[in-house]
Amino acid sequence: MQTSRFAAALAAGPVPLDGGLATLLEAHGHDLSSSLWSARLLLDDPQALVSAHREFFAAGARVATTASYQVSVSGFEAAGLSAELADRALRRSVELAAEARAAADRPELLFVAASLGPYGATLADGSEYRGDYGLDVRRLRDWHAPRFETLAAAGADVLAVETVPCLAEVEALCRLLAGSGVPAWLSVTAAGGRTRAGEPVEAAFELARDVDEIVAVGVNCLDPAEVPELLALARDRSGKPGVAYPNSGETWDGVARSWRGSGDLDVAQVPRWLAAGACAVGGCCRVGPDGIRAISRLLAADPG
Q: What is the CA radius of gyration of the chain?
């Protein structure tokens, strides 16, 4: 497979990613309490998403991660919306991120990552933090296939296959990617050094080793303190460049639909992530433009 533009950037890295899109939208007063989360704005207020992407670019991010994380046919149908509208929303998410890139400084250095979130995210009940779906690899592959195909054809530079909480879903997504020719990064979410479903996280990284389309492997949506050890495992077991974008340190209460704790992402930790193999670094939930600005400046001053 020909080296993608994003893979080439990783080789020259490190690449600063963006932060929590929903975090920034909520800070600007948008109500994301529905089951569609930030995907609702793809329908109701698309320019709010363009503005948020532009804000992260202005903070130094080189990647805009699309608002497609929560979009699926089953999720839209559960909200009384059509499968056709879900497909349109997936494509629109890439178009909006590309619009933001075109308006940014030096767009030729910037990337659009199409977010492919886990099955559990579309249930809107915190299942992505448990991974207890009760679905096998085949059923998960079949569920992901339509949104994968739409995003793969939408023109993004890379797929962000992210916040994957269990081995069955990692395997399903690896099967979709293998042979597709679509560059992607694979990022799992973990706690206590294991997948959210309690499995050996190194097994998830090993599944990615022989998938040429996967250009980076790592972790997101987890406590920052866990990043160095897990990134080292990702590097050793997958043989791929690392990607890391943890939360601020707070934890999500899926029942109360609120964040607990007083997180404060300390960018002084980032050199340890680089030493462990990170070639792309950003933030996930509760990390806004200020955090990304600090990460970007650190990467520019001390590129590993």
A: 17
